[in-house]
Amino acid sequence: MNVDCKIPVFAGDKKVGQSFLLPLETKFKKWFVPKLPGCIETWHLTYCTILWSLSTIFFGYLAQSNLAWIWGISLMIVLQYLTDLFDGELGRYRDAGLIKWGFYMDHFLDYLFTCSLVFAGYLFAPSEVHAWYFFLVVIMGGFMVNSFLLFGATNKFEIYQAGVGPTEGRLVLIVVNAIIFFIGTEHFNILLPLSCLVTAIALIMHCHKIHKQLWHLDMENKNKPS
Predict the structure, then answer these.
(1) Global pTM value
(2) On the CB side of 31, how many CA atoms lie within 13 Å of its CA?
(3) Coil, strand, or helix at residue 54?
(4) Is residue 13 part of a domain?
(5) CA 123, 72, 80: angle at the middle one, nearest 5?
(6) Is residue 10 a part of any domain in this protein?
(7) Which of 28, 36, 123, 131 is the most exposed place for a label (fewest CB within 10 A)?
(8) pLDDT value of residue 14
(9) From CA 146, how far away is CA 60, in angstroms rounded?
(10) CATH number of the domain encompassing residue 108
(11) Start-end of H helices in the chain
């Protein structure tokens, strides 16, 4: 008996959902990408995240002795945002064809950059709060794992929750860096555990939403007439 098994079309390059700033940044990248010189390719922009990650750790090291270097970390957040915003759009504009490669490398390097931010903060934070950075890495990794597991189960790549996505998250980090610069690191023993608690609650709520969504899909498939 022949069974026709259709492989679903890969949809990792199509993000599902909406964030507050998505309409603005979509217009911005569609306006800017055609102006990029021909010598810049999509993979060049993707690989830039490695440079931004190493530079972030370097600025974190310098911030141990002079907290003004924290502005260097904020600059790396902006640069990583720009190259991350443009690389996929440039690939589509030039028909580079690197859809699955781009999905893999882009998100793996996003995780690398996230880890570099946490490690940079670890470097200049007081030693008594260092253990909290372990929990922060686990929680942030949990959000990424959830997105990929949901994609594996539904073939829909969703990175926006309640109107908040990576862009809004980056803005929050820049604001946090500014607050740290002006008030110092003396309040890390309160702020860092509080940040872990808030993000952990958000992760639990996110997991609960996905759990209900997938349960509903499974029940729909089960009750379909054969």
Answers:
(1) 0.89
(2) 6
(3) helix
(4) no
(5) 100
(6) no
(7) 131
(8) 81
(9) 28
(10) 1.20.120.1760
(11) 22-32, 42-62, 70-93, 99-124, 130-154, 166-183, 188-222
